[in-house]
Each structure stands twice: as structure tokens, then as C-alpha cells.
Amino acid sequence: MASYDRPRAGGSPRPLETSATWWYAAVAGEAAGSFSTRVRTRTRRGCLGAVLLLTVVYAGLVLTATGRRWGDAAMTGRRADGVAVTLLREHPSLTGLGTLSLVLGCVLLLALGLIRRRYALTGLAAGGVVTALAVTGLLQRYAPRPRAADAGGLLSSGFPSAQTTLALGVAFGLALVVPYRLRSVAVGAGTLWAVAVGAHTIAAGQHRPGDVIAAALVVLAVFCGLLALLARKGKVRPGARRGPAPGLPVTVPLALLAAAGLGAGLWLLGDTLALPATAPYDPAELRLAHRCGQALAAGVVAAAGLVLLGLLRRVDIEGAPTPYRLGGPYAEAAGVPADAEVVGPFTEDLDHEIS
Asked: Among 21, 56, 94, 253, which has the minimal tally of Cβ within 10 Å of its Cβ?
């Protein structure tokens, strides 16, 4: 127990008070590291939850015959979806633009961090992206899956999607390098971009919906682990509470996309899982499976961005301490400071005890 974290006369510690500064926590009887502890606890739970969901997705969509059949139907159904076929045929440059956007996203992430001189956090963000890509590559290479001969001539499973991993990793990395007040705007816009990248990989037949869903969970798990590490090192502080967040124009559409995608995808999932075990398939069923997969993938990626923003709500990373003043008999005993002077909770008069 810290020297300032003393129990009251009745033997129980003082109740925790809501505060935006570490010094108030100390005066109120809350341990100075308790805020970091709370952030570390919830980010560790977020990491564990993402890993558990990734395991469920892998077992359900890769290891089971029903899940593989649904993924194959969603991939084949893109040819029966007139909207996707028309879009890709009339705009063949979308593939090149997607690759270019990934390169520009990485450059933007590094440039913002270096311009703001947040070298350590920039390195941590880049390390998070590289770690997520490494985990993705290991899963693609070594995760057990059916033999390629059992895939019916379709593309072998690219579980998870490397393109979606990179796009969402860059979006989450922005949370470490952009200013605190612009975090919601940056991460929300980056997540919407990652949704578009994942949707394009599905429509182009490069990945199944389960690959995009798994990529979102991998990135979420990696960055939750990094945030837990930062909290363990005491690199997080309570963020300021000043008016409405400027990120609402981005987070509201992101929340609507997550709710609509998950709702529509789960609603259609029951009908699309009832596909026959062998071909031929009804083109309408294949088209429905493709749209169901697109909705689920978009909903999960958008929900991952919202989860990260929720875990970082009112959490400033490497922010400066909030200036404060303290009045009362102890401060008066030490002398009243000038107006421009910042004082702390402990004065020069050491003949007292905070209880």
C-alpha cells in the first residue's frame, strides 16, 4: 500500500472518486497506478476476447465442412452478384488503387509519428503492424486446414487476409501517433478504409469472408496487447473531457455499419448455411451467400474499430500531466503560491498526514 493510500478510521479504504488527474486519485486515497491498472485490465480482456473469437472463427469456417462450403459459396457467389461484377468490370483500376492506398497508409502512419516527434510510439505502432502481419503469415502457412485437393478447384484458404490486416493495422496504429482529440476521427476513418479493402478482396475473389473476419480479430488482439503493455509501463493518463468529441461524424457511420453488417449477416447466415453438400447450386443462393459474407466481414471490421476506440475512451497515451492547483489549510501553511505557479497535493510542510 502506498504511503498516501491509508485506510480510514473504520479500517476500510476511501471510496474511489472519478477524476481526470492522477493527483486527485492520490488525495482521494486511490493508488497512483490504479488508472493504468484499469486500462491494462480491460485491454488484456480485449486481447483475450479477440483471441477466443479468432479460435471460434477458425474452427467454424476452416475446420468444419459446413463452414468451408459456406465460404466457397460466398466466393463463387460474387460471379452471380451483378453489382460486384459490374463494379469490378467497369473499374479495373480498383485493384491497383487498393495496393497504392495500402502503401500510402503506411507512409502516412510513419510520417505523422515522425512529424510529431513521437518516435517511441511510432516504432510501437509500426511494430504492431509488423507483428499482426507476422501472425497472419504464420497462420496462413502453418494453421491446419483441408488439403488443396479438397477445395474443389477454388482458391486455397488465405486465412487470415493480409490486405485487411495491413489496412486495419495502419488504422489502429494511428491511435498511437495522432493527437488525443483527433484519435476518433483518424481511427474511425481508417477503419472505414479497412472495411472497403476487405470488401474488395472478397468481391475480387482473393479471400473468403472468414479470412477478412480473422484478420480483424488478429489486429485487434495484437493492438490490445500493445496497449496493455503501455499501461503496464505507466504510459497512459486520463484524457481531458472537453465538450462533444469531434469524431462523431465518423464514429456514428462506423457504428451504423457495424450494427447493420452484423445484423444483416447473422439474419442471412441461417439461410445460406443450408446449402446442399454438392453442386449444382442455385445462383440465387450463391448470391445470397456472397452478400451475407460481405455484410458479416464489414460488420466485424467496423466493430473491431469501435472496440478499440471504446477501450481507449478518455485514455491519453503519453499525454502531459494535467496542471492543477490545491488549496486548503496545508497549502496555506506552506504559503499561497503565485497565480502562474502550479502546485501539487503535497506542500513543504511535512508535519501532516493525508488520511
From this structure: 56
Q: How far apart are CA 6 and CA 19, in angstroms?
A: 19
Q: Is 317 helix (H, G, I), strand (E, B) or coil?
A: strand
Angle separating helix axes 119-142 and 209-232, nearest 10 degrees:
140
Contact predicate 311/204, CB 8 Å: no
Beta strands (DSSP E) in 219-328 are 236-238, 315-317
Residue partners of 148: CB distance under 8 A and separation at least 6: 156
What letter represents residue 110's amino acid? L
Q: Is the peptide bond before 337 cis (omega within 30 degrees of 0)?
A: no
What the block records as the C-alpha cell of 17 is 472518486
Report whether 198 contacts 212 (CB < 8 A). yes
- Going from the C-alpha of 152 to that of each of 69, 149, 204, the distances in angstroms are 10, 7, 18
Q: How many CA atoms lie within 13 A of 312 on its CB side?
A: 31
> pLDDT digit of tens for each residue in the chain (355 aa)?
444 344 444 444 444 444 444 444 444 334 545 889 999 999 999 999 999 999 999 999 999 988 888 998 888 888 877 777 677 777 777 778 889 999 999 999 999 999 999 999 999 999 999 999 999 999 999 988 776 444 444 556 689 999 999 999 999 999 999 999 899 999 999 999 999 999 999 998 889 999 999 999 999 999 999 999 999 998 899 887 765 667 788 999 999 999 999 999 999 888 787 776 666 677 888 888 999 999 999 999 999 999 999 999 889 986 544 444 444 454 445 454 544 444 445 444 444 444 4
CA 15 to chain centre: 32
Cβ neighbour number for residue 259 with a 10 Å cutoff: 14
Q: Looking at this protein, which amino acid is placed at residue 143?
A: A
